[in-house]
Amino acid sequence: MGKMGMMPGMGTMGSMSAMPPQVSSGSPMMPGGTVVSTAAPVYEQSYVENIFRLNLGKVGTFYFTYENNKDWNAKVYTGVLEAAGRDHLIISDRATGQRIVLLMVNFDYATFDEPLVYQYPGVIGNPVGGRKG
Predict the structure, then answer these.
(1) By C-alpha distance, which of 83, 67, 84, 65 is closest to 75?
(2) What DSSP string runs through 99-130?
(3) What are 95-120's pLDDT values in tens digits?
């Protein structure tokens, strides 16, 4: 009598040996043990909120425009950059300690009186040979 229900190439339970997959360091794995292959390393992209996050603690001047506002169409804020998110940033006034949450939808530009840390996607640290001011 043949072995019913067995697929060709399968032995008995005692002779099955499963080799774990080769996994490079840092490769993500699914709960079932499947290795997720990634073609290239994933780097944080160069968005303004990421530039702000790299420069927390620096004093800046932030320019905002508020459309359809008769009282104050444009405002300028100066303060220490405390936090930055995708849709907001938080600055604080050193003199008063007051913190202001500003929405990025109204953001125009910012100026700083000191060099900024800027990390290009895929490059660790500041690029060598940057502009000299």
Answers:
(1) 65
(2) EEEEEGGGEEEEEESSPPP---TT-SSSPTT-
(3) 999 999 999 999 999 999 999 998 76
Question: What is the model's pLDDT at position 31?
Answer: 78
Which of these, 52, 102, 47, 48, lies nearest to 77 by C-alpha position? 102
d(CA 105, CA 65) in angstroms, rounded, equals 9
The alpha carbon of 119 is separated from its chain's Cα centroid by a whole number of angstroms, namely 11
Name 127's Cβ contacts closer than 8 Å, sequence gap at least 6.
118, 120
Residue 21 CB coordination number (10 Å): 10
Determine the Cα–Cα distance for residues 88 and 52; give it in Å rounded to an integer: 11
DSSP character at residue 20? P
What SS3 class is residue 84? Answer: strand
In terms of Cα–Cα distance, which of 33, 44, 68, 15 is closest to 117? 44
